[in-house]
């Protein structure tokens, strides 16, 4: 999910071949870091079969990741503006490498919880920092050029990386004898490559002011952006569904236990979101909002229909449509929050949006996991769909009221 770059403190730089190469090296490192975060997704049914985890346990393991992201965004997401991009990216990737080692070491619940928490801490540091880094490297390599290359590449690295990790993990798990170890070994090697790429890339924050006293990121969530914060919550709730319990639904309710299929499902959802974000660049924000609301509502209903009909093609089609909606809706939310926030609070406003969004990634999925302990998976998913429709209705009402009340 693309985060617009905060205003950096930079020295004037001229375009060089090193900045051009650095742009692609950071893009690759960004993609690897985000891909690693979804490696466990197609493996959750294997953990369930091996260690007897319930759907609720899987949602808790997933939620710990989101908690790590939120803590990282609050405590460290803003530090690269003054410390430098590489000084934040290198330890962030180191955290993910440590998480890979934990995943590789065992499958017990405490180990999984610790590994997911470390992954979340790393991803929270990577997301904002790498996006800002790509923006600055693009500007240094192509002064005065359109931002389109930066926007497309950062979207593919971020959202596309989330889908790629699940797909690669699913493919590996289907063709190796140690499916709960090999994917993490492969990504440990890739993370080492990412560390080398960041170490070799040129730093872009070179004019560092005197170090002020440390304080956590302040969150500004002003009243005019309430509808867009709700949009971020709703969009990430769909992403949370497909990166946590959806593979289990496919295996249990739809009776398709293929790990390749589980990874391909997640990949399809995030690929659809990335494509939608890349292809709607010329639409105005109201049009993006309308498209996102309609597609996400329709997609969730199609997913529910796929479960009721026990039809994998319908379920998959719903995931793709919901991915288009969630990707577009979140892009509209980022654009609106950026435009509405005062310049001196823009970075904090975006941090507030991401905080609310990651709550959306966590809270509804935990509720869904709890519901599966008392009801059937189909009944629990029906409740999730009702919640999504209510949230999307609230988004439409709040944003329409804001537009109607705006001065002409």
Automatic annotation (TrEMBL):
Q: What cellular component terms from Gene Ontology apply here? A: plasma membrane
Q: Tell me the compartments it is located in.
A: Cell membrane
Which UniProt keyword terms apply here?
Cell membrane, Membrane, Transmembrane, Transmembrane helix, Transport
The segment(s) forming the Major facilitator superfamily (MFS) profile domain are: 21-408
- Spans traversing the lipid bilayer: 21-41, 53-76, 88-107, 113-134, 155-178, 184-205, 226-254, 260-279, 291-310, 316-341, 348-371, 377-398
Give the PROSITE patterns listed for this entry. Answer: MFS
SUPFAM superfamilies recorded: MFS general substrate transporter
Q: Does the keyword Transmembrane helix apply?
A: yes
Q: Which Pfam families match?
A: MFS_1
Q: Name one GO molecular function term.
A: transmembrane transporter activity
Q: Which InterPro entries match?
A: Glutelin, MFS, MFS_dom, MFS_trans_sf, MFS_Transporters
Membrane-protein topology:
Multi-pass membrane protein
Q: What is this protein called?
A: Putative MFS family arabinose efflux permease
Q: Which organism is it from?
A: Actinoplanes teichomyceticus
Starting at the broadest rank, the lineage of the source organism is:
Bacteria, Bacillati, Actinomycetota, Actinomycetes, Micromonosporales
């Amino acid at each position: 999910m693309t985060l617009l770059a905060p205003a950096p403190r930079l020295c004037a730089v001229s375009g060089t071949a090193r900045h051009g190469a650095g742009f692609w090296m950071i893009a690759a490192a960004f993609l690897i870091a985000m891909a690693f975060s979804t490696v466990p997704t197609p493996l959750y049914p294997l953990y369930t079969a091996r260690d007897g985890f319930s759907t609720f346990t899987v949602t808790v393991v997933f939620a710990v990741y989101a908690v790590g992201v939120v803590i990282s965004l609050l405590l460290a997401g803003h530090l690269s503006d003054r410390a430098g991009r590489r000084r934040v990216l290198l330890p962030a990737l180191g955290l993910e490498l440590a998480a890979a080692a934990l995943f590789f070491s065992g499958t017990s619940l405490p180990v999984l919880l610790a590994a997911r928490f470390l992954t979340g801490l790393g991803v929270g540091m990577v997301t904002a920092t790498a996006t800002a880094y790509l923006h600055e490297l693009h500007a240094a390599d192509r002064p005065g050029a359109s931002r389109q290359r930066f926007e497309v590449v950062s979207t593919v690295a971020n959202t596309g990386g989330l889908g790629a990790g699940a797909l690669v993990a699913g493919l590996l798990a289907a063709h190796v004898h140690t499916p709960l170890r090999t994917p993490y070994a492969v990504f440990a090697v890739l993370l080492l490559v990412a560390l080398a790429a960041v170490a070799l890339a040129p730093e872009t924050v070179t004019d560092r002011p005197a170090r002020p006293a440390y304080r956590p990121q302040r969150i500004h969530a002003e009243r005019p952006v309430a509808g867009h914060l709700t949009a971020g919550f709703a969009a990430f709730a769909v992403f949370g569904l497909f990166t946590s319990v959806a593979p289990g639904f496919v295996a249990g309710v739809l009776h398709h236990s293929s790990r390749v299929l589980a990874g391909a499902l997640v990949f399809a959802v995030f690929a659809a979101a990335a494509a939608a974000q890349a292809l709607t660049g010329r639409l105005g924000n109201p049009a993006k909002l309308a498209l996102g609301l309609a597609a996400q509502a329709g997609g969730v209903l199609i997913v529910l229909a796929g479960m009721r009909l026990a039809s994998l093609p319908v379920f998959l089609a719903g995931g793709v449509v919901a991915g288009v909606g969630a990707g577009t809706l979140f892009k509209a939310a980022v654009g609106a929050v950026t435009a509405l926030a005062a310049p001196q609070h823009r970075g904090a406003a975006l941090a507030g949006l991401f905080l609310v969004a990651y709550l959306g990634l966590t809270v509804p999925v935990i509720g869904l996991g709890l519901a599966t302990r008392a009801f059937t998976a189909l009944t629990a998913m029906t409740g999730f769909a009702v919640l999504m429709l209510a949230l999307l209705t609230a988004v439409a009402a709040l944003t329409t009221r804001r537009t109607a009340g705006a001065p002409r």
